[in-house]
Amino acid sequence: MNKNSNTSAHDHPATEHERPTHAIQLPDGRTLALEEFGRPEGKPVVLLPSAPGSRYFDPDPRATAAADVRLLVVDRPGYGASSPLPAGATPSWAALADDLSEALHYLEVRRASVVGWSNGGIGALALAARHPALVETVAIVGTPAPNDEVPWVPEEFRGLLDSLRGDPASAVSTLAPILAGFAEDPAAALNSIAVGPADERTLTQSRVRDALEAMLTVALEQGALGMATDIVATNVSPWAFDLDSIEAPVQLWYGDGDVIIPPAHGAYYDGQISGATLEAAGDTGHLVLIERWAEILAGLEQPRAASG
């Protein structure tokens, strides 16, 4: 593998023309891009954003700086500067976990905490399950449960997704044109991750709206490929990892005002993962990651402090 890196971490939204801090070549020749925020010498924390989402997102730069962490934010395949999967490849969260393992080893990160927001939380759980030696603690934030367990996929899409299970290799190419409107209209993409009164309150903060719009602009540079890849990994392909094999402590953050992924999803994971704890997120919405970022980072330290 090889890596192209800028020389320092930064805390400002980037334009679509900026290179990522890290562009790591994986064994199959694809690139996995990561952006770095916070302190290079700080405790490593990997953040897997929402769907859609990109590496250009620090949920709260002041909280990140105060927590003294090295925040590594990932472009999943098809988002931002990360390569899409080859045509005909079947997306899976297990494969993403293996990509992340390669990248972290290359960056000489021996152990990290992992935070996954929304769909990104499934990737965080996959990394903890498949590469336990790499993962110290996990936080999943507004992450959906399997639709078969806690229904959340809109009824009008369930039939299409069920039909794609018979030919998952073609699913990304089928879905990407259907989702093209999100790439053409970032406002529609924002509406897909921020819905309801609680999120509307959060979006009144101009810094929040600006940060999310920057994240989404970069996320959609390749059109809807990243979104299609995430949807297939979540709703079409088998997850290919076992929740009950996760050894790391897992925090579950769900807002009572989340219209997209309500707390019932957190209750599902609480029942499936022996080391999980439900955290009180109050009347927050799907943007709970932003509202509770300082607390989430502090919670990642608790098991470490308790173990000495």
Offer a quick outline of the entry.
The chain has helices at about 60-65, 95-105, 120-130, 155-165, 170-180, 180-185, 185-195, 195-205, 205-220, 225-235, 265-270, 290, 295-305, and strands at about 5, 20-25, 30-40, 45-50, 70-75, 110-115, 135-140, 250-255, 275-280. It has about 300 residues and is α/β, with parallel strands linked by helices.
Explain this structure to me?
Helices cover 39% and strands 16% of the residues. The chain is globular, with a radius of gyration of 18 Å. The longest helix is centred in the N-terminal third of the chain and has 14 residues, at 93-106. A 9-stranded mixed β-sheet has the order 1-2-3-5-4-6-7-8-9, with helices on both faces. The model is unreliable at 5-17 and 304-308 (pLDDT under 50). The chain has one domain (19-306): 3-Layer(aba) Sandwich (Rossmann fold), CATH 3.40.50. The protein has 308 residues and is α/β, with parallel strands linked by helices. The N and C termini lie far apart (35 Å).
